[in-house]
Automatic annotation (TrEMBL):
Organism: Rarispira pelagica
Transmembrane segments: 14-35, 47-69
Keyword Transmembrane helix tagged: yes
Protein name: Uncharacterized protein
Entry keyword set: Membrane, Transmembrane, Transmembrane helix
Length: 70
């Protein structure tokens, strides 16, 4: 798992990129939530982004913890 977490992409480890993507997904999900009256299909889009954010956060968290455990 440590090799996966520290796999280099553009000079940075995978765990860094997953964290960055998770952060941006969280910001986008919040923006969609704040603009619910302006967005058609709000619930479907917001829920999709929320689920995607949780999946990325879980993968990021598992890889982060695995660095210290293994």
């Amino acid at each position: 798992m440590t090799k996966i977490a520290f796999f280099s992409i553009l000079g940075k480890p995978l765990i860094f990129w997953l964290g960055l993507i998770t952060f941006f997904l969280l910001i986008i999900t919040a923006i969609i939530g704040l603009n619910k009256k302006r967005i058609k299909g709000f619930y479907r889009i917001h829920k999709g982004f929320a689920v995607t954010t949780v999946i990325f956060a879980l993968i990021h968290g598992i890889l982060s913890v695995s660095v210290y455990l293994f």
